[in-house]
Amino acid sequence: MDLLVNGVPVATGTSARSLAYDSRPLLLGADIEYGELNYYSPIRVSDFRLYNVARTSTAIVADRDKRLVGNESGLVAYLPLDEGSGNVAVDATGQGNSGFLGGGGLPVNQHGSP
Predict the structure, then answer these.
(1) pLDDT per residue as tens digits for the range 2-54
(2) Distance (Å) of CA 19 to CA 22, 23, 65, 66, 93
(3) pLDDT score at 45
(4) Bridge partners, 99 (sequence order)
(5) Beta-carbon neighbour count of residue 79 at 10 Å?
(6) Distance between CA atoms of 23 and 50, rounded to whole angstroms?
(7) Which of 22, 27, 54, 85 has the fewest CB atoms lying closer than 10 Å?
(8) What is the pTM of this model?
(9) Which of 78, 84, 85 is nearest to 49 (CA)?
(10) Burial of 20 (0-12, 13-18, 19+ CB in 10 A)
(11) Which range (57-61, 68-72, 85-89, 105-109) has the least confidence?
């Protein structure tokens, strides 16, 4: 697997663990440990896209600044993050994979960092 930031590879690795290893929600910038939601990371996300197919860095770069329709091949969740208010990010694919937004005044973890 590769980690890309704005379409640029920044890390690579392998894992024997399936991404569907448990029933907990997918979290960005946070984690659940011992039943507690914590470890917030200061990240900025303009939109969120989740595919069920591998995409090349070339394809990611070509699409990264485009607003999607929601029916693109392999797209299983698309949260444009443009609701303007509230704490729910609606999934534009129609597949019901909406997300909960958190932010501001975030709890700190046991190490004292946000």
Answers:
(1) 777 777 788 888 877 665 556 667 777 777 777 777 766 777 778 899 898 88
(2) 8, 10, 26, 26, 20
(3) 79
(4) 89
(5) 21
(6) 17
(7) 85
(8) 0.71
(9) 78
(10) exposed
(11) 105-109
